[in-house]
Specification:
Layout lengths: L5 E5 L3 H12 L3 E5 L4 H7 L1 E5 L3 E5 L3 E3 L13 E4 L11 H9 L6 E5 L7 H6 L5 E7 L2 E5 L2 E4 L5 E6 L6 H16 L3 E4 L3 H22 L3 H5 L5 H20 L6 H17 L6 H8 L5 H15 L4 H17 L5
Parallel strand pairs: 1-2, 1-6, 2-5, 3-10, 6-7, 7-8, 11-12
Antiparallel strand pairs: 3-4, 8-11, 9-10
Helix pairs in contact: 1-5, 6-8, 6-10, 6-12, 8-11, 11-12
GO biological process, one term: pantothenate biosynthetic process
Family: Belongs to the ketopantoate reductase family.
Protein name: 2-dehydropantoate 2-reductase
Length: 331
């Protein structure tokens, strides 16, 4: 790794824009793959409004529309993926990244994405590259192209190698990325087994994302709509995730972990500060949302393992219908 690490950020929406800022603050040279917001970012950069970073305007060192626009002779130290996870989509994420990873086995791939079982396809496609799985806690939204609102100081990235028992150089790459994120002003933690953290985040995502996308409520707002039924639905989904985690041997994803995360929505309901979850943001903006990575992978695993998940299966089927209509796949 060079003194000024070279990093490609793929899918620079609200999360990617903040991580780009952090990495530049850490002394990295950052190339941004911007798709829908390319024109604005290329000409004006990003404007970030944040209680943690202040109000700042900044530009990527290089801005491109596609990885095909990156120089073929450039070898990045890291490719940071902050695009949404859409397993099964064509072209696959691996195919999209191939131009910058082919013949560069030392480039580490950081998957800062939601859901479970999202790493295997990348690891299979690039077996020599370090794969680092990341769990994001960063409440932010891109209110318009290039304008990022970071609602509260929370900025935590939990990281670990995939698989957990990885070669020493892969673990070293993960440690160095943690150091860069901390140096840039965020919080980052290295896990020996990142899957525990990924499944703990699923407690939140599997419950609140589809509920908010379907009801058009914030998390706290939904709890106020039909006591005790709203609470029972969200809590029941969390308990189904706990049962599935237990069945597949994921440690630490238990009722206490669920209570801790459920308390966030309860506090927001009490304070009137409900959060607009990412799926709800996507529905409001007419964008595809992460049905399969967050819910589909979980319900299929549940059926495979014989774990009853009637609540999650119901919201999955409804959310899949909403997504198909949103994308024009159904009338």
């Amino acid at each position: 790794m060079t003194a000024s690490p070279s990093i490609l950020v793929f899918g620079v929406g609200s999360v990617g824009a903040i991580y780009l800022h952090q990495l530049q603050c850490a002394g990295c040279t950052v190339t941004a793959v911007c798709r829908s917001n390319y024109d604005v970012v290329a000409h004006h950069g990003f404007t970030l409004r944040s209680p943690r970073f202040g109000t700042v305007t900044y530009r990527p060192d290089h801005t491109v529309r596609s990885v095909h626009d990156c120089p073929r002779d450039t070898e990045y130290d890291y490719v940071l993926v902050t695009a949404k996870a859409f397993p099964g989509r064509t072209p696959s994420l691996a195919d999209q990244l191939r131009p910058v990873l082919e013949n560069h086995p030392n480039t580490a791939i950081v998957l800062a994405q939601n859901g479970i079982d999202i790493e295997k396809d990348i690891a299979d496609a690039f077996p020599s590259n370090p794969v680092i799985s990341g769990v994001v806690y960063l409440p932010t939204v891109q209110t318009e192209a290039g304008v990022i609102d970071h609602a509260e100081p929370l900025d935590l990235l939990e990281l670990g190698t995939y698989p957990a028992r990885a070669p020493e150089e892969h673990t070293w790459a993960a440690k160095k990325f943690v150091e860069l994120m901390i140096k840039g002003g965020g919080d980052a933690v290295l896990f020996e087994d990142i899957q525990e953290a990924r499944w703990a985040k699923l407690l939140l995502n599997a419950a609140w994302n589809p509920i908010c996308a379907l009801s058009l409520c914030t998390d706290g707002g939904f709890l106020l709509t039909s006591e005790p039924f709203a609470r029972d639905l969200a809590w029941g989904i969390m308990m189904e995730i706990v049962a599935l985690a237990r069945a597949v041997g994921i440690a630490g994803v238990d009722e206490e972990a669920a209570k801790k995360r459920f308390a966030l929505a309860e506090r927001r309901a009490k304070e009137g500060t409900g959060r607009e979850m990412s799926m709800l943001q996507d529905v409001n903006m007419g964008r595809p949302f992460e049905v399969e990575a967050i819910m589909g992978n979980a319900v299929r695993l549940g059926r495979k393992c014989g774990v009853s998940m009637p609540r999650l299966e119901t919201v999955y089927a409804l959310a899949k219908g909403r997504l198909d209509v949103l994308m024009g796949c159904r009338v």
